[in-house]
C-alpha cells in the first residue's frame, strides 16, 4: 500500500457501491494528531470498507502503523504501535446515534455526502493515545525507584535559604 488515502469523499456513493478505500496518511498532515506526537515521517496504513446495514451507512476498517511519543518519565522517544479496528455508523445527529443497536460506534458526519476520511482517521487515532506516555518499566531510561527519589528531592524548597544568603553577604563584607 503506497497510495495516499483520499481525504474528502462522497460517502453515499461509496456505501451504495460497497467500496473499499485504502491508502497511507502521513501523520504530519493530521494537525491535531501531529501536535500530540513527536515530529517525524510516520505514516498510517488505512483500509476502509463502506456498506449499508439496515438503513445505516457503515464504515469498517483498520488503521495500522506506529507513532513516536515522548516518554514523560525519561523524556526519550517511545514507539506506540497503532492497530485499530473500527466499525463506525455514519450518522447525522445525536438522536440517530442513540438509536443505534449494533456493535457500531457513531461518527457524526455532515448531512451532505462529503466527509473527510483524514479527520475520521485522526479522531480514531487520538482516542488510543495514552493520557500520559510512558515506556514499559523494563524499557524506560529511568527506573521507577529513581523517579520516586527524584520526586522527593523536588519537594524540598528550591529557593535559597535566607540565612545562607545573609551568611554569604557577611562573608563578602568581611573580606574588604
Ligand atoms: Zn521512559
Topology overview:
Layout lengths: L7 E3 H6 L3 E7 L4 H4 L8 E11 L2 E15 L6 E15 L2 H5 L6 E4 L5 E3 H12 L15 H12 L6 H14 L1
Parallel strand pairs: 5-6
Antiparallel strand pairs: 1-7, 2-3, 3-4, 4-5
The chain binds zinc ion.
Zinc ion binds next to loops.
What does this structure look like?
The chain is α+β, with helices and mostly antiparallel strands and 176 residues long. The chain has one domain. It contains six helices and seven strands, in the order βαβαβββαββααα. The strands form two sheets. It has a five-stranded mixed beta sheet with strand order 2-3-4-5-6. Strands 1-7 form a two-stranded antiparallel sheet. The longest helix has 14 residues, at 162-175. It is elongated, with a radius of gyration of 26 Å. The site of zinc ion (ZN) has 7 residues, from loops.
Keywords for this structure?
single chain; 176 residues; alpha+beta; five-stranded mixed β-sheet; two-stranded antiparallel sheet; binds zinc ion
Coarse morphology? elongated
The helix/strand series, from N terminus to C terminus, equals: EHEHEEEHEEHHH
**How many helices?**
6
Would you tell me the overall average pLDDT?
Answer: 86
The helical percent reads: 25-40%
The N- and C-terminal alpha carbons lie at a distance of 78 Å
- How many domains, as an integer? 1
Number of strands: 7
User: Structural class of the secondary elements?
Assistant: alpha+beta
Amino acid at each position: 500500500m503506497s497510495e495516499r488515502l483520499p481525504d474528502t469523499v462522497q460517502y453515499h456513493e461509496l456505501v451504495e457501491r460497497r467500496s473499499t478505500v485504502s491508502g497511507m496518511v502521513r501523520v504530519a498532515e493530521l494537525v491535531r494528531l501531529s501536535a500530540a506526537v513527536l515530529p517525524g515521517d510516520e505514516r498510517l496504513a488505512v483500509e476502509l470498507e463502506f456498506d449499508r446495514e439496515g438503513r445505516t451507512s457503515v464504515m469498517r476498517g483498520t488503521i495500522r502503523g506506529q507513532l513516536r511519543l515522548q516518554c514523560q518519565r525519561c523524556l526519550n522517544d517511545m514507539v506506540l504501535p497503532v492497530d485499530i479496528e473500527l466499525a463506525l455508523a455514519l450518522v447525522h445527529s445525536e438522536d440517530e446515534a442513540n438509536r443505534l443497536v449494533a456493535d457500531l460506534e457513531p461518527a457524526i458526519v455532515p448531512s451532505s455526502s462529503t466527509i473527510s476520511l483524514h479527520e475520521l482517521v485522526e479522531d480514531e487515532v487520538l482516542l488510543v493515545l495514552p493520557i500520559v506516555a510512558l515506556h514499559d518499566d523494563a524499557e524506560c531510561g529511568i527506573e521507577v525507584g529513581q523517579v520516586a527519589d527524584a520526586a522527593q528531592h523536588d519537594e524540598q524548597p528550591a529557593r535559597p535559604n535566607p540565612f545562607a544568603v545573609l551568611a554569604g553577604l557577611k562573608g563578602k563584607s568581611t573580606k574588604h
